[in-house]
Amino acid sequence: MPSRPRLPPRPHRDDVLIGLGGLLGGVVLWSLGLVNNDWFPRLPDALPLVPLTVMAGAELLRRTAPAVALPLATVALAVDQTSGSLISTVLMFTDVLYAAVVYGTPRAARSIPQATVYLTVAATVVPLVIFRTAVSLLIGVAFGLAVLTPAWTGWIIRGHRDTAATERLRAEQTALLAELDRREAVTAERARMARELHDLVANHLSAIAIHSTAALSLGDPAATDQALGVIRENSVRGLAEMRRLIGLLRDAGDEDEPAAAPTLDALDTLLEQARTGGQKFRLCDERPGDAAPLPAPVELAAYRIVQESLTNALKHAAPGRVDVTLSHVTGGPLEVSVTSPYGESPVPRAPGSGTGLIGMRERVSLLGGTLDAGPVTGPWGTVWRVRAALPLGYEGAPQPRPLTDQEPP
Do residues 57 and 157 share a domain? Predict the structure, then answer.
């Protein structure tokens, strides 16, 4: 089926008003006999109304079809100048020329002002050569006012309009990027808060669940009393950590000073708190005694990795020894290794959520390190090993440093 011909767009309302205003003004001037020249007196007196009407029609196309309006207006102006010119026709031509630069194609916007410069020079030089009088220069001045001025005015206006459009687009892009950055920051902040909440509180709650299960399953009153003591200690510590975390989130000025971030020097206390059931814990610190202090984010990440690994050992590991090893070679990363017996625990354990390994991987990734977690077979059988390498200089870290316990998220 053949496609229907595309109709030209409707003229803009302002263009219709300009065309009607110019047409009515020209008719009034013609009726009053205000014609600019009378080079051909034998021509009909109503002939100037013809280019006037054509020019008014070109005004209707000044915005929707400037490539058609300008040639039409040029022909109408030529006829107007030879048939008794009306000032209304000339003024409408200047407006059509201005609109051709403002609303035309980029190529037309560049070529039309340049062409008007050449035409104005020719309109000034040619009469001066022919008539050789100073008065002939007025022809070039009049031609420049009618052609050069509207063309270059349109060029300036178009430049400002294009600049404004570019700035609006840039502002929209900036706002979009800001929104994307905001969403990314919110997502990262939520991940940090979840990681901190898990590391600060989940360890104590897991210990409470483990010892309460042991207290219920054991018939020894002394073991039950010991388990209840551990439950109370972990509940008090967990409550204190929760209060401190809430204070950091609120950033209240009247809160007490937040506790210092845990360091690797506190691992002995952490292992002492974790000793329960059939597990035995051993710490082997192979770092040189004269080593420089570790960066706070690295030390915090190492502490949290050990803490989470011990919690997982209490939850899932079979009875046996849990080894915690710290090693650091000058110029290399800090290596943290936690090995625990691999197998089913003979006593009921608290269920895990699976977020502990995710949190450890996030911490290591923020520092640009590596983390391996899984069963490993060696001379002493199969063990579950968590091994992390934490660069001290954050080489290759894809994101900013992780949140510390001293900073509100």
Answer: yes
